[in-house]
């Protein structure tokens, strides 16, 4: 299927699973060993990546050392999504001691742009996260990211479904839905006032009982800033104000792609400000390229 990297099967070690932690740690390591054996037997074009799971810096270091000895040149560190920065730094410091020069180290699921320079200094060459994508529709308030700010999307749920759910008159609900759409689009063209647009959006939100003071304030902020007019990404350039409307799956995903693009811009700004850390340039030469690789 054209994948460039394949990852061994790992087992998360949660704090709640203390009695199981050794078994899960052993299983993750045995999987990595078998994965590499099978990889060598097959004629695969992807790069194998071994996963390290653990519960403290020492357990992560032990498995990382084992992965290096097995022959992995790419390793991934999992299980740190919920960890504090100081704990992540302790783990990465311990792991770095057993790495060989030129190794690629992926950090699973940790999206903390401000920590990127620190993680890079500790040998991390890539990370992934669905957080920005998912917040486009999972976050109750902050759905649209622009630079360092985040804004609330304007919710215009489908009228017929809303009328059924809330036991409302269908025709009246559709009229309010269309008014919310029409004023927002007119506002984008400077043909409707902020006040009228805000009122139509809040009135529609009231049908679901969601017209809280906080939502009203969030909507006002979104309309005042018009963030969708400031973004240069392909989504915002093509669909304009539609990106800020919280509605169906496709529309919400498009806002997620915009958010991911914004995260990438954020990472590039960090790289421009910090540059590649000098100690990493000599130790791991692919740092800069790896960050750029995320554009793919
Ligand atoms: Zn955009």
Concise synopsis of the structure shown:
The chain has 296 residues and is an alpha/beta fold. It has helices at 21-41, 57-70, 85-96, 116-121, 131-138, 159-166, 170-188, 194-206, 213-225, 234-239, 249-274, 278-283, 287-293, and strands at residues 5-7, 47-52, 74-77, 104-107, 126-127, 144-146, 149-151, 154-155, 245-246.
Q: Hetero groups bound? A: zinc ion
SS class? alpha/beta
Order of helices and strands: EHEHEHEHEHEEEHHHHHEHHH
What is the multimeric organization of the chains shown? single chain
Give the distance, in angstroms, between the N- and C-terminal Cα atoms: 16 Å
Strand line-up in the sheet with most strands: 1-2-3-4-5
What integer value in Å does the Rg equal?
Answer: 24 Å
Whole-number total of structural domains:
2
Helix content: 40-55%
> Quick one: how many beta strands?
9
Number of helices: 13
Shape: elongated
**If you average the pLDDT, what whole number results?**
90
Low-confidence region ranges: 278-296
Strand content: 5-15%
Major sheet, described briefly? 5 strands, parallel
How would you characterize this protein structure?
This protein is an alpha/beta fold and 296 residues long. It folds into two domains: 5-129, TIM Barrel, CATH 3.20.20; 133-263, no CATH class. The chain contains 13 helices and nine strands. It has a five-stranded parallel β-sheet. Strands 6-7 form a two-stranded antiparallel ribbon. Helix 1 links the parallel strand 1 and strand 2. The protein starts with a strand and ends with a helix. 31% of the residues are buried.
């Amino acid at each position: 299927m054209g994948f460039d990297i394949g990852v061994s099967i790992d087992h998360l070690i949660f704090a709640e699973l203390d009695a199981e932690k050794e078994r899960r740690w052993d299983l993750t390591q045995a999987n990595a060993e078998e994965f590499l054996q099978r990889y060598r037997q097959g004629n695969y074009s992807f790069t194998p990546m071994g996963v390290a799971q653990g519960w403290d810096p020492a357990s992560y270091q032990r498995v990382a050392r084992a992965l290096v000895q097995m022959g992995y040149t790419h390793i991934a560190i999992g299980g740190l999504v919920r960890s504090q920065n100081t704990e992540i730094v302790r783990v990465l410091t311990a792991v770095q001691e057993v790495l060989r020069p030129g190794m690629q180290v992926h950090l699973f699921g940790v999206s903390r742009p401000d920590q990127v320079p620190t993680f890079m200094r500790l040998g991390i060459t890539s990370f992934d996260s669905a957080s920005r994508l998912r917040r486009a529709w999972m976050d109750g308030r902050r759905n649209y990211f622009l630079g360092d700010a985040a804004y609330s999307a304007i919710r215009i749920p489908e009228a017929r479904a809303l009328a059924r759910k809330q036991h409302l008159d269908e025709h009246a609900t559709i009229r309010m839905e269309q008014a919310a759409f029409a004023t927002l689009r007119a506002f984008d063209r400077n043909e409707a006032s902020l006040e009228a647009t805000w009122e139509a959006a809040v009135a529609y939100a009231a049908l679901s009982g969601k017209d809280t003071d906080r939502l009203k304030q969030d909507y006002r902020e979104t309309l005042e800033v018009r963030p969708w007019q400031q973004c240069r990404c392909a989504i915002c350039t093509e669909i304009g104000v539609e990106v800020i409307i919280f509605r169906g799956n496709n529309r919400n995903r498009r806002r997620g792609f915009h958010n991911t693009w914004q995260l990438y811009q954020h990472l590039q700004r960090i790289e421009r400000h910090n540059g590649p850390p000098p100690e990493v340039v000599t130790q791991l030469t692919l740092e800069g390229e790896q960050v750029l690789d995320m554009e793919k």
